[in-house]
Every structure is written in structure tokens, then in C-alpha cells.
Amino acid sequence: MILKTFREPPIDNNNYLLIDEESKEAVLIDCSAADPIVKSEIEKCGAKLKYILLTHGHFDHVAGIRPTDAKIVMHEADMRILNQTNMYLPAFGIPEISIPKIDIFVKDGDVLKIGNTDIKVLHTPGHTQGGVCYLVGDMLFSGDTIFRESVGRCDLEGGDFVQIVDSIKSKIFTLPDNITIFPGHGKSTTVAWEKEHNQFM
């Protein structure tokens, strides 16, 4: 499995490209900017983008989505937030976009595949009501649910601090300690490190 990380403006979001080397299927986890380098990496590997997996519907995680053959995936509870995207883009100097159509609404426990690799969906509300993490082998892509030694902000629409703490404890801290967490912003971490050092837990 090939993993590429792209830190994208305007808020230094981490977007992650996973490419299954055997099947040549790829997924992009969050899409903050229409980055030609992402397209170039896919083409260089002779791969095809199968899914754009959204961890939640905030504008800085969806602003780069353009018409695509890839299936766009999100939790249905974040549709209201997604539909508000163009309210926020001008303040960051980003042109308005056509609100993407969600092709697949996922829920907790759903499994998607690239090649023979499972992508398990963990519903982790708290930052937003439709926030999800994607578990791929020993990698967890956590969006804005958990960061290195921190958690996603809970003062925006759909946020709930008690809920995000419960999501982390019940869905993330129950995973094996060696799982690497790749967050929506900032540096990667591990389940073990966050159990010991996350100040909000």
C-alpha cells in the first residue's frame, strides 16, 4: 500500500492518498484543494481513483472536490454542514464550488474496499455529528476527531465535547496500541501515545 500525504491550504489540512499496488485502486481521504500533484501521483502509479472519503463536511475538507468519476463518501449527518460550504470559502480567498453530490452515505461499521484491502468506517461524532474515521490495516485516518495530544474543536455547529471524548474512548482507544493515527491537521501519532498524553482524555 502506498501512502502519500498532502498538506493543503488554506488551513494546512492533511489530505491522504492511498494506492493499492496490486489492484491499482486509490482513495483520497479528504480533499481540501484541487491539487494537480495528487492527480499526477495517481497517474504516475497507473492507478484509478475509486473513492474520495470525507471524514466530515467542513469546508476545509471538501473545497478541492471537482467533478470526478470517483465515488464521494460521507456520513449523512453532515449534509447540512456540507451544504453551507460556500458561506465560508470567500473569507479564505477560495472560489465558490459546486456542492459535491455524495454518492455513498456510510455508517458505523461499514466496510469499503480498494483491491483486497478493507476500509472500515468508525462513526466518531463530536467535532461534527457526521464525523467518521477510516481504519485501513494499522492506519487510522481520524479527520478532526483526534489530533496529536488534542481533539477537534467542539464549539462549531454539531460539536459536542462530551460526545467527542466518548467517541475517542469507545472507538479509538479500544483499537490496538500500535495503530498509527493520521489526523486532519498536524503530525501523526499513535493510539498508545494518545492514551498516555492526550490532555483532553
Verbal overview:
This protein is of the alpha/beta class. The protein has a single domain, classed as Ribonuclease Z/Hydroxyacylglutathione hydrolase-like (Metallo-beta-lactamase, Chain A). Helix content is 18%, strand content 31%. The chain contains five helices and 14 strands. The strands form three sheets. Strands 1-2-3-4-5-6 form a six-stranded mixed β-sheet, with helices on one face. A six-stranded mixed β-sheet has the order 7-8-9-10-13-14. A two-stranded antiparallel sheet has the order 11-12. The model has no long low-confidence stretch (mean pLDDT 96).
CATH architectural designation: 4-Layer Sandwich
Percent in helix: 10-25%
Tell me, rounded to a whole number, the average pLDDT.
Answer: 96
CATH secondary-structure class: Alpha Beta
The CATH fourth-level homologous superfamily = Ribonuclease Z/Hydroxyacylglutathione hydrolase-like
Order of helices and strands: EEEHEHEHEEEEEEEHEEH
Poorly predicted ranges = none
Structural class: alpha/beta
- Total count of domains: 1
Largest sheet: number of strands, sense, barrel closure: 6 strands, mixed
Q: What is the total tally of β strands?
A: 14
- Which radius of gyration do the C-alpha atoms yield? 16 Å
CATH topology heading: Metallo-beta-lactamase, Chain A
Strand content: 25-35%
Give the end-to-end Cα distance, rounded to a whole number of Å.
Answer: 32 Å
Count up the helices.
5
